[in-house]
Amino acid sequence: MSSWRLRTVVLLPVFLLCACAGSAHRLPNVTDAELKQTQEEIANSHTPLKTYDRSDATYRKDVSRITNRLLENAQPLCKKTGYEKCFFQTVYSARDDLNAFASDGYKITVYRGLLQYLESEDEVAALIAHEMGHHLARHNEEKTENANIGAAAAGILTAVLIGAANANNPYYDSYQQQQSAETIDNMMAIGAEIGSLSYSKEEEREADLLGAYLLARAGYDLRKAERIMVVLADLPGNEGETRAGLTDTHPMGIERLAAWRKTVAEIDSNPSKLPYATDTASR
Ligand SMILES: [Zn+2]
Fold it and tell me: Where are the chain's structural domains?
């Protein structure tokens, strides 16, 4: 079997297998009309992005104060999501990357490059709360799991296909077996990569939802915080939105903004200030 064909046959099912985890929380349902309305509104009120120059010391202080304020109010939400330790730590990096990410189950890293575009404390809090949301929903754990599933599935499928292709081949010698073993290793590595691809749209929406609840609990202004969605969609390299260079891990766009607004309305009328679970939640 040619190598591209082997890749297609093995990796397509691996890809489908890994793209399966659903949200444990009920995500807002955005209609086409709501999407269109948000899009028009943003197009009409669009102002060019600008940067707000603050010192590293200010950013460090802001980030630590905001993280603490979110944490002080997060306990019921941590409990609800089954997060053992309601402990998150935000690290500020003075690098110019347009990025922020969650790692190690508790760590959040935010870069100056991205923070400089944010105007209010509510926006910075939204960024940090969103990354906390990825932690609360265990999106990174799923990724490690998916990477393992992807590697195993790709390895098994490749081995089966190579075995079948050589079943009646008397000339399948030890050299060829060695080559086959290397092929299996390569396919496993590719399978792992597919399994751990960046966050899905649904994961981003779930992190937004949990982030919004965290913000509300800590008393931040959700209507002011939403500006971060517009900023992310507008960042250099992302003009025209839909996908953020904010690494491939954070697809952005009008859709998220529209969903955010529905979430804000949901939180306003939700006395428990805890997100609703999906009916089919299996975690
Ligand atoms: Zn995200």
Answer: 3-19+142-195
